[in-house]
Specification:
Elements (H helix, E strand, L loop, with lengths): L10 H14 L10 H25 L5 E8 L11 E2 L5 E2 L1 E8 L4 E8 L19 H12 L3 E9 L8 E5 L13 E2 L1 H24 L23
Parallel strand pairs: 5-6, 7-8
Antiparallel strand pairs: 1-4, 2-3, 4-5, 6-7
Length: about 230
């Protein structure tokens, strides 16, 4: 509806559109809860999204959006890309929140998170914290869309720090709010994606074989997420 990226000039219109969309979707916010709770949730969601749009307008990235809620691997859907083939036995499907791209075939993957930023969003933690989501989405963009994924970010919508965290190719990704520690060379970025593919395929093979290893220390940021059923 906006027709382009959110910039200081387009921000007022973007905020107007946000109010319109929130009005259209108000019945889906905190559905089934009491009116007071739903109203409070609605105000909180509106405040977070207004703050994020204002932040994005200052970021300076002018790459247009190429796709929203981009589906892949949903064979029953006419609007879906094919599945991502990780290896001969593993096919992946999912939905990518947002893909931006320029006229040179470069792309940025963004995955929105409703809460605040977490340390494990930064690219340096992806391997140790076994975080695969955005890396696999970048493979989708490269192999199914034929674009060059020069950045992949987790984008928090809440909390005090709205900076997107993940990885980006130094000198290729636009924006004024990039975190220097997330920068990688082209070769390093390629190696990271190859490693993510291999780890995902290995995990799938372990699941298929029934080799489920309890890992309560790393199951979630608060420890074991399923203490009532976990064999640990």
């Amino acid at each position: 509806r906006l027709g382009g990226p959110v910039t200081p000039d387009s921000l007022p219109r973007a905020l107007e559109l946000l109010d319109t969309v929130l009005g259209e979707q108000r019945h889906g916010i905190a559905a089934g809860r009491g009116e007071a709770i739903r109203a409070g949730w609605g105000r909180s969601v509106a405040a977070d999204l207004r703050r994020y749009l204002t932040y994005e307008a200052r970021d300076g990235s002018t790459w247009p959006i190429r796709g929203l809620e981009l589906r892949f691997g949903f064979e029953e859907g006419a609007d879906s890309l094919p599945a991502l083939q990780l290896d001969e036995d593993v096919r992946l499907r999912g939905i990518i929140d947002r893909v931006d791209g320029d006229d040179r075939g470069r792309a940025i993957v963004r995955d929105y998170k409703s809460g605040s930023s977490r340390p494990e969003y930064q690219g340096a933690r992806w391997e140790t914290d076994r975080r695969l989501q955005v890396a696999l989405y970048m493979l989708v963009v490269r192999e199914l869309l034929g674009l060059d994924p020069v950045a992949g970010f987790y984008q928090p919508l809440g909390g005090g720090d709205l900076r997107a965290r993940g990885v980006y190719q130094t000198g290729a990704a636009p924006g004024e709010c990039l975190v220097a520690n997330d920068g990688r060379s082209s070769e390093e970025l390629g190696e990271l994606l190859d490693e993510a593919r291999a780890r995902a395929a290995q995990l799938a093979a372990r699941l298929r074989s029934g080799a489920l290893e309890p890992c309560p220390a790393t199951c979630s940021r608060d420890g074991c997420k399923y203490p009532g059923i976990c064999r640990a």
